[in-house]
Structures are given as structure tokens and as C-alpha cells.
Amino acid sequence: MLTKIVSDVESSTPLRARLTERLREAIASGELPPGTPLRERHLCQALGISRTSLREALRALESEGLAVSVPHKGAIVAPCGRKEAEDIYATRAVLEGLLAAQFAEKASKTARVELRHIADELAEIEPPLDGPRFFEIAGRFGATIMEGAGNRLAASALSSIYLRQRQLRAAGVGGERYMEECLRGMAEISSAIGRRDAMAAEAACHRHCANLLRIALSCLAEKSGSRSASSDARKLSAGPRNDAAEADDADRESLPAGHSDVDEIA
User: Fold this and answer.
1) What is the pLDDT of residue 225?
2) So where are the chain's domains?
């Protein structure tokens, strides 16, 4: 829960770092859904922290794209829709392609052996795919390439993209189709790297991200359609409404479902 941010991490860690990490994880995991208001007064009261510490943490989250500042309203959790998905996968394609090419060209023998072992683990996975185990192995696949490529700047930027991607998954992007494409894409990338073909590895990353984007947009469209249909059904079943009631509903819908404010989330 958000109220445990300060106490659930070693006290030797600076307060801002503890706070930023906890909020970062809450956003990436969907505990704080897209659009959630990050109101300073409520967060400071709930967490027992100063506005200065909170503002420093929020600035860090904004720099990572996990929060955005809305004029006259303050910070909110960053939206996670079609435009964000397009940006996430376009940027991921460039960064992953660069790192895969650099890995193919100059990774150590140890790193290559490790990547081959992980690729073998992925090849042994059979449907139905186990989400948590699958993404744990896939995470090691990506981390091995990032480390073996030796490009810390690109790796750091890609780590931020992976956080936004987790936010997308929490928003409903995923499922069997998504994991099957991950398997196919990583196998193609691994094969190109095994041949030390940097251009083929980079091209495989671009194809993989393009396929993932198509699946992500399909998932988001399906979820949006379900919400619209549910909303229409509620309106039909409710019958005529007066303007005051509709305005009240609009106010309530501006907050995440099931929550009246930030300090009640989780």
C-alpha cells in the first residue's frame, strides 16, 4: 500500500529515492492507473512526507514519462492510450535495434553463451504460456543484451521505455497473442545475434516491435470498445437523467474506478 512507502525500504536509502521508486512501481504495475491525480496534499498526508520531497519525486517521474503536469490541475499519472503505445514501440524499436546490433558485433563469449541459454529456455516454453514466468525469462533476455552491448546510455533510456510498457500491460495490453509474438521475435533476434549479423538483429527488433504495436493497438481498441458498450448499457438501463446527476457522474468518473482520491488507492 502507498502508506508503507517510507517504512518498507531500508532507511539508509535517501527519502526521495524511496518515494520515487515506490511511486514508479505503483504506476508501472497499474496500482496507480493512468490518469490518477497525484494530489500533493493527500499524498503528503498519507505518506507523512513534505511537499518538497514529493515534488522532487514527481519531477523525476515526469522526466521518465510516468507522470505529466496538467496546467491548473497538477500532476497525474501519464495517459496510456494509442498515441503512447505508438511512441513506446517506435522508441523501443530504435533502442533495442541499436543494442542488439552492438551485442552482435562486440558482446563477450560469456554474454553470448548466457543469451543462448536464455533463448533455449524460451524455446522450451509451450502453450498455454505462463505470464509471470514468461516475462521473467524475457526480462533476462533483454537485460543480457543491454549489458552485453555495453551502451549504458541506450540501456538507461530503454529501461524507462520498459516501465511504460509495463504500464501498458497493466492497462490490458497482453495475452496469448502478445506472448507468442514475444517468443517469435526473441527467437529471430537470438538467431541473428548467433550469426553475428548486426544488421539482421537490428531489423528483427524493428519487425518485432511493429508486430507488438499492432497487437497492443488491437488490445486497446477492444478494451475501449468494451468500456463504451458498458457505458451505453448503463445509460440505457438508468433511464432519463437530469443535468445535475449527469454532472455528478462526470466528476466521479474523473477518478479511477473504485477510488475517491489518491490516498485511498491500494
Assistant:
1) 75
2) 2-79, 82-222
CATH H-level, domain 82-222: superfamily: GntR ligand-binding domain-like (1.20.120.530)
Q: CATH number of the domain at 2-79, please? A: 1.10.10.10
pTM, 2 dp? 0.77
Angle at 146 between CA 205 and CA 184, to 5 degrees: 35
All three cell numbers of 193: 545475434
Task: Tell which residue, 56, 17, 83, 61, has the closest CA to residue 160.
Answer: 61
Residues 6+ apart with CB under 8 A from 205: 93, 96, 97, 100, 185, 189
How many whole angstroms separate alpha carbon 117 and alpha carbon 249?
Answer: 54
Q: Which helix (H) or strand (E) element contains residue 218?
A: helix 198-238
Where the chain has pLDDT below 50, the residues are 4, 6-9, 229, 233, 243-266
Closest Cα partner for 146 from 184, 98, 91? 98
Contact 52, 19 (CB under 8 A): no
